[in-house]
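Help needed: design a sequence for this.
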């Protein structure tokens, strides 16, 4: 696959993004770290504010990264921005407005995987800083790839959720994951893994729902 931009242009874009938006990026990282810490408490997490945080993540990636910066080197970024805004709207509608999302680390095999993905997304800037030997010209927080990994981790902890919310993260895990290999961003290699995990998780949920309906129908 041939990308419409060079690797140098790609990393120059991060320098512009980081240099312009670093205060907001740090605040987003701090809010996300707080959300992750709250999941380790004994109390169920507040679904509305965590859903709001996820919606902000996706809207931020859509506008601040795709719309303002990535469109400079890739015309397809307008489509990506629309896709991310759609995901932000779906999360806001389901979790913030209707209050249908809640998150809790239950005793299942998915919980440690979900928490690990969230921690990885928070460590994402540090991983890139070590690899690239830079603090400015690197992919940092608030970008599409760590946003998707963070979201997948949180979705694995959702007590109930519409399957529609998994579609865009799975699609982006394939798009961003393929670009990661072409551009040599090793921190993004976790992205297709996260997408595959979410796909398996959704398949298992579908099978469990089908089995439950079948049992109820036979009673």
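Sure. Designed sequence:
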């Amino acid at each position: 696959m041939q990308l419409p931009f060079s690797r140098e242009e790609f990393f120059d874009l991060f320098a512009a993004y980081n240099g312009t938006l670093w205060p907001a990026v740090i605040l987003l990282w701090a809010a996300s770290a707080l959300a992750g810490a709250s999941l380790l408490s004994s109390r169920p997490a507040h679904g509305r504010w965590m859903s709001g945080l996820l919606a902000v993540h996706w809207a931020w990636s859509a506008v601040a990264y795709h719309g303002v910066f990535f469109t400079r080197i890739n015309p397809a970024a307008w489509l990506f921005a629309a896709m991310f805004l759609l995901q932000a709207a779906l999360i806001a509608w389901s979790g913030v407005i209707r209050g249908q999302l809640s998150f809790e680390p239950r005793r299942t095999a998915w919980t440690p995987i979900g928490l690990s993905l969230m921690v990885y997304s928070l460590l994402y800037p540090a991983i890139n800083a070590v690899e690239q030997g830079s603090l400015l010209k690197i992919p940092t927080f608030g970008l599409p790839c760590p946003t998707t990994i963070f979201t997948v981790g949180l979705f694995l902890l959702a007590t109930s959720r519409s399957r529609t919310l998994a579609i865009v993260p799975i699609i982006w895990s394939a798009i961003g994951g393929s670009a990661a290999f072409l551009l040599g961003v090793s921190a993004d290699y976790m992205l297709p893994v996260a997408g595959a995990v979410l796909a398996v998780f959704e398949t298992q949920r579908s099978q469990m729902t089908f089995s439950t309906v079948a049992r109820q129908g036979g009673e």
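Helices lie at 7-38, 47-67, 77-97, 110-132, 144-155, 167-183, 190-218.
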